[in-house]
Amino acid sequence: MLPAPAAQEWRALAQQLAPQLRFGVSTWSYPGWEGLVWDGEYESSTLSKHGLEAYHQHPLLRTVCVDRTFWRPLTASQYAAYAKQVDDDFRFVVKCPALVTDAQLHGEEGRTRELNPAFLDPALALQEFVRPALEGLGPRLGVLVFQLSPLPWGWLNRLPTLFEKLGLMLAAVREALSAHDAVIVAVEVRDPELLGQALVDTLKAHGATFCLGLHGKMPPIDAQLPMLRALWPGPLVCRWNLNRVFGAYGYADAQKKHDPFNAILSEDIPTRTVLARTIRGITGAGQPAYVTISNDAEGCAPLSIQRLAQAIGA
């Protein structure tokens, strides 16, 4: 499997960007990226297993977000299989499994069954996430993302207890990373009620940062930037997940409109403009930046990255 020849036309654009800036996508097994990322037509199953071999040779794609870890933990050997497909400069963004970061247990159809007794459990986070990722990815591990799923009212009504539990888990994670200073720990939330000084204090106390989550359930980017300013100086971790026009739960609608994900169909110039300015400021100060984009943001993640890179250069 080889990269698309046309992708090399973006090399000059990539060379204009700060070296500490890493762009990537969320999940890479899309046949529709033929001619953009892949050199030919491949089945989704083939891309899932071997696509990183071509993906990492794209000049603008220097990271990737492994979303599948949210649904089921990966073993060290599974992480190692990914690491073998990329070069030494590549870095991975990985999500903590929902069994740690979701306050509720869900049935097969997604219905809530009961509260999760292992929510934010430090030992489970290390066992099922941090240690396997460290062992399997080694120096190619870039960011550990802890995305807190939407919380039930019982937790939103007890925020001091929530931040205490989050702090205990982050303390254990930071201790496990004591010999891996380059790995960034980021917390993403899906409840606007969590944005505030208490979250800032918790993140600061344990050497973590705020993940800028651009998603229909969260306020627009401008309203989230005060969190980054309160944590300054620090890195940028941004996941542009879903265009706000589809609402908080509009993944299915976004997928239906954007399939086969080879064109920009829901362009979001305001978000792109503010994000480009934010990236320029943070990388200009010498801080690292990891920005991953989903097809659900504008329709085609590789093209979104190209246009964002052009906006940064402009």
From TrEMBL:
Coiled coil: none annotated. InterPro entries: DUF72, UPF0759_sf. One of its GO terms (molecular function) is glutamate synthase (NADPH) activity. Keywords: Oxidoreductase. It comes from the Bacteria. Its EC number is 1.4.1.13. The keyword Metal-binding does not apply. The keyword Magnesium does not apply. It is an enzyme of class 1 (oxidoreductase). This is Glutamate synthase [NADPH] large chain. It comes from Orrella dioscoreae.
